[in-house]
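Page 42, continued from yesterday. The earlier attempt failed because a stray header line got pasted into the input along with the sequence. Redoing it now with the clean sequence only.
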Amino acid sequence: MEIVSIQDLGSEVTPEHYEKLEAGNVLFINRIPIDFSEDDYEFVMGQRQTEAAYRKNIAYRPAQDILTGAARGSDEERLRRLMRDFSRQAVELLSRLLARYAAGWKVDYASLRPFEEEGRNLSLHARNDLLHFDAFPTRPTYGDRIMRFFINLHPSRPRVWITTDGFETLAERFADQAGLLRIGRRAASPLGRGLARLGRLAHLPQARRSPYDSIMHRFHNYLKENQEFQKHCAKQRWEFPPRSSWIVFTDMVSHAVLSGQMAMEQTIIIPRRLMVHPEQAPLGILERLAGVPLVQRT
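This time it went through. Structure tokens are written below.
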């Protein structure tokens, strides 16, 4: 992985920036390009979230203007307004920088991550400190891409990540061992398609997933469960400085967060058809390995 700096925030990035981003690198901005008043910044820095085990972050859903996960007793209406404003500004910034993607993308959740990441008590599959590729168990993407814009709000502490090999390398290495190809081929069989149809008729949540989404969810869990891999794989360490920002396809970059506190994030789902190199996306890689289509083409 490389860190590729962006200097000009007023216009679209170069073709080289797109290629670097899609190849599994990070676009880096050495400041927070979001306007917060001093009062709002102090308010956000004072936020805490509920201790409920099923909530990893404070989440904001822009389409519904819904905030979840804030600690009881906090000023939820003010926080919702600030998260709405953050999401709006983040989308405006990304629309300028990555105009190629903006026409067809879907604005997904935003989040505030107030906890210190080091030592968090989370379930295995929810842990952020274990290397993984992102996959959403309840929000299938059908082969479209998960792009995330992060800001490190903390005034003095970096946000520390580690990464390892890229998606294609790890998919080739673990495809059989993790059962990824078996999932794809079974789902593509007449029996698998019939069962999926019945599941959709019965409104089963898992039936909404394409074979691709099932594979990505399995791969996410498999890597976190694989202690040998987590312990012995080659790792690169990255420190994102205080009050900096970055953009990355987290379904392509294996990543884990070792430490850091007070971050914000906006997720955007990018249609694969808008990629410069759609064949390099995880869907293209997995379909080459499986030898069968993993999403239904319309």
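Notes: The chain is about 35% helix and 20% strand.
Reminder to self: strip header lines before submitting.
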